[in-house]
Design goal:
heterodimer, A: 337 residues, alpha/beta, Alpha-Beta Plaits, 4-stranded antiparallel sheet, 40% helix, 26% strand, B: 284 residues, 11 helices, 2 strands
Chain lengths: 337, 284
């Protein structure tokens, strides 16, 4: 049984299709990452799961509830940390948490106990009794995370949790998320930071144009690319002839694919290997043919490679492409109730 | 700290629904009052404006022949009731502003994601807050007006004043909250508040009796809800007050005190019913 199940979810804003038949299954107790450029539909999907938005069509099941019908039960199960941190500037951090506790109907003792725990855990003690208006982005985000966790939700939903944050706040948030993952909390986070998803997510989905175009564990997705990337040089500056003959040799090795000669990097050779064994035997193999290994580097494929493979463009390019198309004023209006 | 994830056990949460609604409504109301205490300028501005009116207008017309005004009162006495109502009216007209800002800044989403016992809590807390403020402001005007020698109502009169103000404040608050959910932003809401404020005052019997007005303005004043609040209050300041007596000599007929209150009551209930579907849709 999946903790979150989205089926054929569609949502349009006027002529813009934010979600176009999105399917997603999130197992209980996992930290699930949604990766995609800004404007791919991640926030819309999260807002639908949180009951803030109704889809045009499709089904939403969250924590055993039909989220489109049993909205209150769904809300009680989840904590939501929005992308735009909405904080009352006049209240102090502690007052905001107390308000949050009352909105979730926690009793006084339990509420205060939880607030103290979270202040300690998120390192907010020095400033929690100051007014929120004076907080930095990182402080606001930590406070918002604390308010999302106050009622110990079974599901925590975070929309771009570390966008634009200072390093300290980011690491505090990452540590807490890892800790929560180790308990039984299911976490769904969206991000357009590759490293964030790579570092945190047990499982992930790549969202593009309102659809899931690839999903699995980050490792599996990388493995599906066909192996590690290797860059080889037999001399500091080879010539084309030498590179081509090495290419022929390497191509014949079982488990090597996509061999290319990179002219711009002094005729180095780039290829994919399926196992590390190939790399350790490479030197012996080449010396038999009178070639030496001058330099050899090997790297795991990154999620950027995965993204590139799935969409035909890098995440950065996709981001730039979408950035021009977005109408922030309209989006802001749409998120207003 | 370990964050346990067991579902919330007994003893952690409020149990029955009524308690839930009370807890969230109290918390939301308290938030508005914290804002007021830390940013009291709106409260004071709301008192100061009618006070200046009271001083200047009473001075401006202090030589107006006394026999022209109903009940042979001085202009200051006459004006007092109008300004009490005006204070409550403009206070309530602002009711939608905090809600509008919550919409614009996304704070409303924080409330909507929470498993509220009832989303009416959001509206109820605004109504409680605005009602308290409007009554406080009106009381301040009454007190000043008493200090200026324009009198103080009897206990019964005071009760009528409070009831009248409550009805008016509820009605206008409903209207303002409705606007706060319909209009696209606070600029538009403030524009409407600006436009509505003074014409509604001038088109009522706050500053002059209907007998002073040209026919068309008399018509407007005698269907203006403010008039139905002003006249019972004006009467409550008199020693011999009687709700059965005719308070408004309108072009369409005579209206007594009970009718004034009944009209305000119907207006209030009507407006709440009118905005209900809207709130249900926006807060669904």
């Amino acid at each position: 049984m999946f903790f979150i199940q989205l089926k054929d979810l569609s949502k349009s804003y006027g002529s813009v299709k934010a979600l176009d038949g999105l399917n997603l299954k999130v197992p209980k107790g996992t930290l699930y990452g949604l990766l995609g450029p800004n404007g791919a539909g991640k926030s819309t999907a999260l807002r639908i799961i949180c009951t803030l938005l109704n889809p045009d069509s499709g089904q939403v099941h969250v924590a055993g509830h039909n989220a489109l019908i049993e909205q209150k039960q769904t809300r009680a199960k989840l904590g939501y940390v929005a992308q735009e941190v909405a904080i009352d500037k006049i209240l102090t951090g502690r007052e905001l948490l107390q308000l949050q506790g009352d909105l979730y109907h926690l009793n006084k003792n339990y509420k205060n106990k939880r607030i103290d725990e979270l202040i300690l855990r998120l390192g907010m003690n020095d400033w929690i009794d100051r007014r929120c208006g004076s907080f930095s982005g990182g402080m606001k985000r930590r406070l918002d995370l604390a308010s999302g966790l106050l009622h110990e939700p079974e599901l925590l939903i975070l929309d771009e949790p570390t966008v634009g944050l200072d390093i300290e706040s980011r690491s505090v948030i990452w540590e807490l998320l890892k800790e929560l993952r180790n308990s039984q909390t299911t976490i769904l986070l969206s991000s357009h930071y590759l490293e964030e998803v790579d570092e945190l997510a047990d499982e992930m989905a790549i969202i593009d144009n309102g659809k899931v175009i690839a999903n699995g564990t980050p490792d599996d997705l990388k493995k599906q690319l066909g192996g590690d990337r290797v860059t080889l040089r037999v001399r500091e500056f080879s010539d084309e002839l030498e590179a081509e003959s090495v290419k022929k040799l390497i191509k014949n090795i079982h488990g090597v694919s996509n061999v290319v000669v990179n002219k711009k990097q002094g005729y180095s050779l780039n290829f994919l290997v399926r196992s590390n064994e190939i790399i350790s035997n490479l030197s012996d193999y080449l010396s038999k043919e009178n070639f030496e290994v001058f330099a050899l580097s090997h790297s795991r494929p990154s999620l950027d490679d995965v993204y590139l493979q799935a969409t035909g463009k890098t995440l950065m390019d996709a981001e730039l492409e979408l950035a021009g198309k977005r109408d922030f004023k309209l989006e802001n209006k749409q998120s207003m109730r | 700290m370990t964050i346990s994830n067991s579902s919330i056990q007994q003893g952690k949460k409020t149990r029955n629904k009524l308690n839930e609604i009370m807890q969230e409504t109290f918390a939301l109301t308290w938030r508005l009052f914290i804002q007021l205490i830390r940013r009291p300028s709106t409260l004071f501005a709301g008192i100061l404006q009618p006070l200046i009116w009271l001083l200047l207008f009473a001075a401006l017309f202090s030589k107006a022949p006394i026999e022209f005004l109903p009940g042979n009162s001085s202009y200051g006495e006459f004006l007092g009731a109008g300004l009490i109502v005006f204070t409550a009216f403009s206070g309530a007209l602002n009711a939608g502003l905090p809600v509008m800002f919550d919409r614009e800044f996304g704070f409303l989403n924080r409330l909507l994601v929470a498993p509220l016992g009832s989303r009416s809590s959001i509206v109820i807390s605004s109504v409680i807050y605005i009602t308290t403020i409007s009554l406080l402001q009106s009381l301040a005007i009454m007190a000043t007006s008493a200090l200026l020698g324009y009198g103080w109502p009897s206990f019964g009169g005071f009760l009528v004043i409070v009831i009248t103000l409550l009805l008016l404040v509820f009605a206008v608050t409903a209207l303002s909250l409705g606007l706060a959910f319909v209009l696209p932003g606070h600029i538009e809401l403030i524009a409407i508040i600006f436009i509505a404020n003074l014409p509604v005052l001038f088109g009522s019997t706050a500053l002059a009796p209907i007998s002073f007005m040209p026919g068309w303005l008399g018509w407007i004043a005698s269907i203006n809800p403010l008039t139905f609040a002003i006249e019972p209050i004006r009467m409550s300041y008199k020693n011999s007050f009687d709700l059965k007596s005719v308070l408004i000599h309108a072009p369409y007929g005579e209206v007594d005190g009970y009718s004034c209150l009944a009209i305000l009551f119907i207006l209030t209930v009507g407006l709440f019913f009118l905005i209900r579907p809207l709130l249900n849709r926006k807060l669904a």
